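User: Here's a structure from my thesis project, written as structure tokens. My advisor, Dr. K., wants to see whether a designed sequence matches the one we expressed. Can you design one independently, without my sequence as a hint?
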């Protein structure tokens, strides 16, 4: 028998798939359209096995769908602008474009070695002018509609990356990319008015029935719709007003101080100058992750209903990202306010009473009956909310309001490697948008990098100096570039017409192929990329460019692969910086791509994080080697006599077809692998029949089931066994006989402390958890267990389940 030479087998089939362009799709095929997509990668270097979980899983789905009669559109491209390339240019002295293209070449080669199939004729590169021209075009369209604007605002400044960050890119007060503490700076920036779409984005979530509930919740919370009231507090010493938003106007009489964000526009005006260094420190330590700190202002505010003076504090637990950046603080009924007031000796007044409510040691944030609230005493909270807001409206000191936590999308980046913002500044005409016929505004390639000294575009005279499109006078270009999330907010549309020169895409074609039927990617993109993509699609719908509002029908978010970090000693997501990366090339050279693929899918439920195990890899290799040897054994047998079927093997086979099909349908490849291993063990043990025809029939079905996960070995075995040139990719998925797939049922006796109390009928070899679940639903069992503690459960498979109390 020939030994399992995975190297030559995999090279052979990768060449065949590549030469035949098996994943190429020219238009909607006879079986109907199906658009599947893996989130495209940032080409930052070599892929590791953690990346493989996305792309290998996607490829297994693609091959399965092909065998089910579909020919999905399955493209791939590169999210190729961004900070890592620029930082590499500074560190290594290589141009970002050169560094990026070298990485793409290597990563594309790795995709091939994994055996993943894409329609490479649709490949896109976001750093190419033919792509980013349309980023600029979209920007101009939004500018025309008032959705793109420039404003002075407090921005998150990362000293490490020397650029501003969107709120979503700041995690626990530090830059998500370089972990440098983020500072607040008042800067003029370009924004996209995503807040105009807050309600639509919220309502759209209700239509996404095939999205994980966790992602829906994350987006809903990020948009953060709150119903309440805007209330005005006057600062008589300044002749100014502070507007606060609250969801609890019923607690207004308990407001004993105002708390402003360190980034509030009035913050520097209301504190003493000798406190500015403290204010700067507060700006660096904002949010609930830090100890609560504050600076007392030199002015007081007037309570809108009592007329009393109350102190104003700058507090680091108040953020500009929510409401107005100022809150009325009610220490008795908000825990953060309570902790701050307790620390600084501020008055605490109970205004919502309920038995077991406020006790002086912590805040009570529930509802109840109003006390210490003047004419509103005795009212229940809900009624008091309406009554207090009505009085504020009559007095002109407040109104009913809806607020969103969502803030406009800050897209300005003070870095080089990104899409130039197509805006010109003219002394005569002011801000002038570039004319469409002049697009793209090309990013200059002859930029010199001299370390972290700000945006190199600012010193590139050939780029900066230009002529005004209106008056033809001397003018200067905008040197900020766009956030790379702009690139990824519409790339799935460009895949439909990747070479179109007159438009970003052809609407007729896009409307035929989209929305995307299945989108696969990491949970870490739940807010950033997915929210921005939804916003873009809504805008394009309003512009009449597409006839759908939501871009992705079904979303599958795979978990991360983790490994012990050589730096922290903890189990963490794979990362070069953590020293816990496993290189695919090492595994492929030692065990083959099919082994890595199989183990990646077997490692655990795909939607959950999983720990990488080198032992698990060798176990999958041994399994594939056994499959190969079995195939060799069959192919060496003579064809003689009539086909003699083994009913026991057939029953197990059809049960396995049913189980594996169901697993594939819900992307539970880990249990599909387990079922195939279980079947193969059974098949090997019971295949005593030397009749090649029967063994060949069963084995041919088995390798079809295994094929999406381990395609190279299965294609080779298929060719060897069937002696056919037809690829498995083109063959039909196996069907099962419902009668044969029926599971054998057994009766399991249920005991409590050894006494017979009932029985359940379950499929043979059912796991303990399943039997326990059924048993606990039985009325007699529930009655005997009521109010008692189960110390342990004793389960004898197919026979007895005993609850020990």
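Assistant: Designed independently from the structure alone:
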């Amino acid at each position: 028998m020939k030994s399992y030479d995975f190297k030559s087998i995999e090279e052979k089939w990768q060449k065949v798939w590549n030469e035949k362009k098996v994943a190429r799709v020219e238009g909607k095929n006879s079986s109907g359209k199906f658009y599947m997509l893996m989130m495209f990668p940032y080409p930052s270097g070599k892929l590791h096995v953690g990346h493989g979980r996305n792309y290998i899983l996607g490829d297994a789905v693609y091959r399965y769908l092909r065998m089910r009669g579909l020919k999905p559109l399955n493209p791939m491209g590169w999210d190729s602008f961004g900070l890592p390339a620029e930082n590499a240019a500074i560190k290594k002295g290589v141009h970002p474009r050169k560094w990026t293209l070298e990485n793409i070449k290597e990563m594309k080669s790795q995709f091939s070695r994994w055996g993943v199939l894409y329609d490479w004729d649709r490949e896109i590169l976001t750093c190419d002018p033919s792509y980013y021209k349309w980023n600029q075009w979209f920007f101009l369209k939004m500018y025309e509609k008032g959705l793109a604007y420039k404003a002075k605002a407090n921005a998150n400044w990362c000293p490490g990356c020397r650029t501003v960050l969107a709120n979503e890119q700041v995690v626990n007060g530090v830059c998500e990319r370089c972990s440098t503490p983020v500072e607040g700076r008042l800067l003029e920036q370009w924004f996209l008015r995503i807040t105009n779409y807050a309600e639509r984005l919220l309502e759209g979530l209700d239509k996404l029935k095939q999205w994980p509930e966790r992602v829906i919740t994350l987006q809903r919370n990020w948009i953060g719709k709150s119903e309440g009231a805007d209330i005005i507090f006057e600062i008589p010493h300044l002749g100014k007003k502070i507007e606060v938003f609250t969801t609890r106007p019923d607690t207004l009489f308990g407001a004993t101080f105002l708390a402003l964000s360190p980034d509030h526009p009035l913050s520097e005006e209301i504190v003493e100058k000798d406190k500015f260094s403290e204010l700067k420190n507060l700006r660096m330590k904002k949010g609930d992750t830090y100890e609560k700190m504050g600076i007392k202002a030199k002015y007081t505010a007037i309570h809108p209903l009592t007329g009393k003076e109350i102190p104003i504090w700058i507090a680091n637990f108040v953020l500009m990202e929510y409401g107005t950046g100022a809150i009325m603080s009610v220490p008795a009924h908000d825990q953060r306010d309570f902790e701050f007031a307790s620390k600084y000796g501020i008055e605490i007044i109970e205004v919502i009473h309920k038995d077991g409510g406020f006790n002086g040691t912590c805040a009570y944030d529930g509802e109840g009956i109003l006390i210490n609230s003047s004419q509103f005493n005795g009212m229940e909270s809900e009624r008091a909310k309406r009554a207090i807001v009505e009085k504020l409206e009559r007095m002109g000191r407040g109104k009913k309001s809806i607020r969103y936590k969502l803030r406009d999308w800050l897209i300005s980046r003070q870095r080089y490697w990104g899409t130039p913002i197509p805006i010109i500044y003219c002394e005569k005409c002011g801000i002038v948008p570039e004319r469409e016929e002049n697009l793209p505004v090309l990013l200059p390639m002859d930029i010199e990098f001299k370390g972290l000294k700000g945006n190199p575009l600012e010193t590139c005279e050939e780029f900066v100096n230009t002529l005004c499109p209106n008056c033809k006078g001397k003018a200067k270009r905008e040197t900020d570039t766009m956030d790379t999330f702009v690139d990824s907010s519409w790339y799935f549309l460009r895949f439909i017409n990747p070479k179109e020169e007159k438009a970003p895409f052809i609407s007729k074609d896009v409307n035929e192929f989209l929305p995307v039927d299945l989108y696969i990617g990491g949970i870490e993109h739940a807010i950033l990329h997915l929210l921005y993509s939804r916003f873009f699609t809504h805008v394009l719908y309003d512009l009449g460019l597409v006839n759908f509002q939501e871009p992705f029908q079904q979303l599958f978010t795979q978990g991360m692969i983790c490994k012990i970090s050589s730096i922290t000693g903890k189990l963490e997501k794979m990362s070069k910086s953590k020293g816990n990366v496993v290189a695919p090339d090492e595994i492929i050279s030692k065990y083959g791509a099919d082994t890595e693929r199989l183990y990646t899918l077997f490692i655990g439920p795909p939607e959950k994080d999983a720990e990488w195990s080198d032992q698990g890899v060798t176990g999958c290799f041994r399994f594939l080697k056994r499959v190969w040897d079995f195939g060799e054994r069959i192919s060496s047998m003579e064809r003689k006599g009539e086909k003699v079927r083994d009913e026991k093997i057939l029953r197990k086979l059809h049960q396995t077809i049913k189980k594996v099909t169901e697993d594939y349908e819900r992307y539970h490849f880990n249990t599909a692998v387990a079922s195939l291993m279980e079947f193969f063990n059974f098949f090997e043990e019971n295949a005593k029949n030397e009749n090649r025809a029967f063994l060949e029939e069963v084995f041919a079905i088995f390798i079809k089931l295994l094929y999406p996960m381990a395609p190279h070995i299965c294609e080779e075995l298929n060719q060897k066994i069937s002696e056919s040139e037809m690829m498995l990719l083109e063959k039909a998925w196996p069907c099962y006989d419902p009668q044969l797939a029926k599971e054998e049922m057994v009766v399991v006796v249920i005991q409590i402390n050894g006494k017979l109390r009932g029985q359940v009928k379950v499929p043979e070899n059912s796991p303990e958890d399943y039997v326990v679940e059924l048993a606990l639903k039985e009325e007699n069992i529930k009655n005997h267990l009521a109010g008692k503690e189960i110390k342990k459960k004793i389960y004898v498979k197919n026979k007895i389940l005993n609850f020990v109390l």
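When you compare it with your expressed construct, this may help: The mean pLDDT is 92.
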